[in-house]
Amino acid sequence: MDYEAFFQSELEGLKREGRYRVFIDIERRAGQFPKATLRGRGGGREVTVWCSNDYLGMGQHPAVLAAMHAAIDACGAGSGGTRNISGTNHHHVILERELAGLHGKEAALMFTSGYASNWATLCTIAAKLPGCVVLSDAGNHASMIEGIRHSRAERQIFAHNDLADLERRLAALPDDRPKLIAFESVYSMDGDIAPIAAICDLADRYGAMTYLDEVHAVGLYGPHGGGISEREAVAHRLTVIEGTLAKAFGVVGGYIAGSAAMCDFVRSFASGFIFSSSPPPAVAAGAIASVRHLRASSAEREQMHARVAQVRAGLDARGIPHRANPSHIVPVMVRDPLLCRQISDRLLDEFGIYVQPINYPTVARGTERLRITPCPLHTEADVAHLLDSLATIWSELRLARAA
Questions:
Q1: Which of 3, 8, 110, 292 is the most buried (most CB within 10 A)?
Q2: Do residues 284 and 91 touch, judged by C-beta distance below 8 A?
Q3: pLDDT band at 41 (very low <50, low <70, confident <90, very high)
Q4: What is the DSSP letter of 363?
């Protein structure tokens, strides 16, 4: 078999469908985000980033940077190993205490990424509990799906945010069978929000555990940034709260929070945790500073939500179709992969605006979109330029306007 020909053929198929992913080479500017320097594509130009998951700009916050510099000077670059073999630095211990406090839980456990925390935790719990069945929301992230699949536990997929379908499935299971309901708070592509309290009610009624992915909500919602579960005062009802340090907190890494026994169980049995080198102390130090700042300050959250409302109103005024939702994620709907790439390229090349196209398999075919994430550091001028640029492209391409 000609292996190279096979690889090339598969890649050509992606390109024909408009699904080939192109990395945009940019250089973030500390102190100037969301401005960045474009490298490649006639590099050296300034662009404005409108698709970052650094939702609050904490990746350049002075307190975060100072903490990371201090940790590098004190501890060096790497962690030195896995958490069990020389890789537990005191910064990791402090961060886990801070995260437990953020969610009102007994304990927390840090991972190298949000993907790793979902994969390892769901896989371990579902695999070790005898006869466990996992009820997974149809909109769950790939990391959750993979963790559940690798557990080899029975999986039932309930319709997205559909309480009736979830209850029907729970009611059909034996009372004494272990059950785990896995779902997200804010879904990253559509920006809709789960009915957390109602899911907890069903879990209580049918004796199920709950696993909530708050990746796109921590730092952004609740009086202290504890996520939707904090905003709705239901964090205490959840078995596992999973989050990330790479989005609103602006650094990198993932974590879970819950009871001391649950976290110790995952720490002791999850291969994805046991055999991974721990994140560098500087990363943990930066995360500590970010979590502490956002627990005390709501200014960044308020400014971000104000910018989101401004962008939505501007899109409505210009008839640019976008999916309505109650979150900070603004999906501008294009519904064609080739057109989505064309619009993204024009925004970058002609208007200095970076918005990545989102195509299958991240979203379903026919729902391709530009995923816009306004942040507190976007200026009034940035917003006006984005809206006017989209309106220009919509007119020149004769695209359908929203009613």
A1: 110
A2: yes
A3: confident
A4: S
Tokens 């959750």, residue located: 144
Query: Which two three-digit tokens encode residue 355?
Result: 């918005």
- Show the tokens assigned to 331: 């999906």
Q: What is the pLDDT of residue 42?
A: 72
Q: What is the pTM (predicted TM-score) of this model?
A: 0.96
CA-wise closest residue to 290 among 27, 28, 60: 60
Token output for 201: 């009610």
According to DSSP H, which parts of 233-298 are helical? Answer: 260-269, 271-274, 281-296
Residue 5's CB is within 10 A of a number of other CB atoms, namely 9
Contact 270, 121 (CB under 8 A): yes
334: amino acid identity, one letter: V
What are the φ and ψ backbone dihedral angles of 211, each rounded to 5 degrees?
A: -125, 110
Strand runs (DSSP E) across 132-178, as ranges?
Answer: 133-137, 154-158
CA–CA separation, 252 and 258 (whole Å): 20
Residue-wise burial string across 206-216, b where 16 or more C-beta atoms lie within 10 A, e elsewhere: bebbbbbbbbb
Identity of the amino acid at 352 = G
For helices 260-269 and 114-128, what crossing angle results, to 10°? 90
Tokens of 37: 């320097």
Which residues are the active-site residues?
Answer: 247
